[in-house]
Amino acid sequence: MYLLKSLMHTSLKGDGKFNEDIASYAGNYFWVIDGATDVFNYAEVSQEGLVSSYVNTLSMSIKNNLIKGDISLSKLLKQSIDDTGLFYEHKYPYMANEYEYKLPSFSVAMGRIVGSVMEYLVLGDCYIELFDGSKRSLITDIRIKNATRYNKQELRNLQNMGVVSKENEVAIYQKTRMTMNTEGGYWIGSFFASGIDKAITGSIDINEKTRILCYTDGYDLYNVLNAEATEQHFETTSIENNINSLVEMLNNDNERTKFTRTRKVDDLTVQLFEIVKGR
Predict the structure, then answer these.
(1) pLDDT at residue 249, as a whole number
(2) How far apart (Å, rounded) are the C-alpha atoms in residues 102 and 87?
(3) Fewest CB within 10 A of the end CB: N or C in the chain?
């Protein structure tokens, strides 16, 4: 029997008004959630903003549902989304009849340790990486890359035409957001849980040497820049240095030309765990 031991947790706000990432763990479960920034100016229902408030409430719902005992990742996420939705619909009844693409959506990666395997669920651009002492494995959902590539190409087109403006950029994101959880669009976590059955799920063997990284796409850019990363990638000091270098590079890329992206500096969240042998 293996247990999950937390080694580090870091969550940094980017250049937006709120941190729309959240990560946590409880027992042998862990998760990271990356809220999609509102592009419709829909609402700010608390001092934290709608998206930030939503992902924090969802994370708390996950913890509360784990008190009831072991549950599959899919059932856990669906129940927690339902509970969170009821909370917001009670406060803001109009949300029950709103278009889903206007309400909070999110990427998510979750795992749980069961015996000698790690079960996982990933939807959108969050990531789980494992290193078992000899082999490095990456679990993510590459399907959302099509939507990301479309947005980046449209942003480059604006730059090439010399018509870059906040209004034109937002129009690109709105057009893409309206395709969420539709065939031909992209699958994502959402207020009514309509995309959860499309999540990437499975299991992978673990041992007492296994380390697990769980992170949002704000940290994935480190992998883009450092494809040769080795087992040091799973050490606390190395991760902290990677984050500092990444944030410095992004802050110095004022025109967002080195890497075409929505925000100059995205929110960034990383959790590191090791597997230990239980009694």
Answers:
(1) 80
(2) 17
(3) C
